[in-house]
Amino acid sequence: MSALPASLAPAEPGLSAPVCAHCGAALPAGAGRFCCAGCEGAAALISGLGLDAFYRRRDGAEVGAQKPAELPPVEWAARAVPGREGSHSLDLMLHGLTCGACVWLVEQALAAEPDVTRARASLTGRRLSIAWQGPAARAEALARLVARLGFQVAPWSAACLKAAEDSEGRALMRALGIAAFGATNVMMLSVAVWAGSDMGEATRALLHWLAALVALPVVLVAGLPFYRSAWAGLRAGRVNMDVAVSLGVLATTAMSLSEAARNGPYTWFDGATALLFLLLGGRVLDRAARKRARQACAELLAMQSAEVMRLAEDGRAERVGAEAVQPGERLLVAPGERLALDGVLEAGEALLDTAASTGESLPRRFTAGEALPAGAINLGAAFTQRVTAAAMEGSLAQLARLLSQAEQARGRYVAIADRAAAWYVPVVHAVALATFLGWWLWVGVSWQAALVPAVAALIITCPCGLAIAVPAVQVVAVGVLFRRGVLVTSATALERLAECDHVVLDKTGTLTLGAPALLPDPARPQGALERAAALAASSRHPLARALLRACPDVVPAAGVEEVPGAGLRRGAERLGSAAFCGLSAPADGLTLYWRKDETAAPIAFRFADKLRSDAAAAIAALHQLGLTTELLSGDAAPAVAEAAALLGIPDWQAGVAPAGKAARLTALREAGRKPLMLGDGLNDAAALALAHASASPAGATDLAQGAADLVLRAEGLAALPAAIAVARRAQAAARQNIGFSLTYNVVAVPAAMLGLATPLIAALVMASSSLIVILNALKLGRGAAR
Amino acid sequence: MNVLTVLVPLALLLGLLALIFYVWTLRTGQYDDPDGAAARILFDEKE
After folding, report:
1. Which InterPro entries did the record assign (chain B) (predicted)?
2. What is the interface pTM, i.e. ipTM, of the complex?
3. How close is the nearest chain A Cα to the Cα of B22, in Å?
4. Residues of A in Cβ contact (< 8 Å) with B23
5. What predicted TM-score, i.e. pTM, was given to this entire model?
């Protein structure tokens, strides 16, 4: 193979602008074939391994997703699991694994390592298992190899495990297989009985008992998921749909046994097993749809999981998991690191970005002894933090407990199917009982004969259509949203989302990008930006970073000194606050000044936390859907007012503390509103959990994502109004389906009560009603695709 | 009707075999990565 595939950039269809040959991101002006050194390295590595075919094979890769990233600071060797005879294995979570070609690339690249014995990547689970012959220390090199190919790696964590470990899902799949076996084989025997009207009594009895032999174990084993859920519901004092299913299936089986015993014309084993099969099918699909979303969420979280640098008594530093740190211990916080634990600043000064924990868009300076909130990001130099609370007692854990309480409260939300079941099930059972008593006492047939029409009524009403009506809609709607980059994490999320009438929005990081951007200024002298950016290159302050972003290919100036909280200087050249540059201008936070020397007039660089490009359109779309909006931010008033005015949000409040946000949500709920909360920070988490429904944009903090019903994975807010529209259509379709199932019962039940229904008729109507309900649900997907 | 004594057990046996086969595929994790399996079939064999 030749060195580098030359025809790569144009291979991206439909893109006329030049894109990076590796990651597909737009190329900065003047760049060659790659957008950055990382991508160039990745392409060289892939080509060196003779795996260029990757570029021809991959498709649908997310633009920029395969940009090589730094390996997270994790003790990789400690994560390697020792196996037999000196071998080790390691499980990784991969981000950026989008198609079969990625799987192929990762597996082939690892297989090229002589000591690797097994490398297997799961495209669905985003999980990579590597096994190698050799020391645990190889783990880091292997993880780095994958990272250099352009995939972000993280250790396979407990959160991932929880999403992937799916013993319940597997039990459902097994039950489905058993029910399929039962339904087909019992149907084979039943058809023989239906067709063989000239069949002898003895043969019919034999076939009845054979059907019972197959159906009994199948009903007992495959029905377990329903019996368990029904029992749990009954114990909690609720009648759910599974109670109806369980009773219907068990009563049908019992009646069929009694029919087999007295050698009646028909048994109904086929109905019981077919019903189980259909319902299990619906449940497996429902689960699969949400499992994908849960897994994607776990993937996002795993990328954020952190370790901390603990300072031992003798001054040595060691990497440990945040959960192992005790109060009183000291941690070294590196520049750019996120604080994982609460603590106080031990000495000196620290500059922290507290946007995630308070919503302030500008960093704050902390002095020695001051309490540092967990979740803040260190923007200054490295400092030492003395931990005041262990991970389990800290503010993050408290927030997490608050969330789980709120979640339990939300768990009491009764889904539409269960609301229907609450009155439907008693009615159905009363009808069945009345049928039985009517035939037995009034018409005067034997009680065994009276059981037949009674149970027939039960199984025909048995909510085949009804039980599948809502899951079918859910599967389609969740799938539609997943393809649009919206992850639905909760089972009742769509129902609650459809009911919302008011949207509460956070500003920093949600409506805005969460990072300041330099505003253009035509009056700025030539060359000033370059000079200022050269100074700014040595600082982590968000404004300095923003300056550098505006002028990325500047050569960093040498000998720059940072004055904490004031600015940067090199000789007489200064970049920083107004006072630092000798001006008495009022401090408005979002302006940097630069002066060449003491005599030159300072030049201002103004910044703004830019609104997301589609924020205004998204807000307009929300208004069009008939929702009212309000802005609730922890940031200062001028910035909030400006954002509200630009976006056309009528109500806004600034400087709201996390507790204030939660209180506002509670007040709204008490006033009878159904608020939808959209937020990204730790300060939003409580409000997210208290809202009727909640959503988080991509890049939100892990707690916020954990509290939200929806995670908007695709960039941009436009997905939110779209999601609400889909949820409303889904809700309408669910209602139609339930309505259809009920009307069909109005016809079918009297027929069954009069004893006109045979198992054949029951089988036909059961299948047809399920099909109609499913087709109605699929219509939703087609409508959304347009 | 003697044919039933052969065909019915045979049919049930075949069904049971299919069920056992299905449980085996489930146990060996063949439904864990459906997307990956779909892509893997197109890979060239190297060795």
Report:
1. Cyt_oxidase_maturation_cbb3
2. 0.88
3. 7
4. 174, 177
5. 0.70
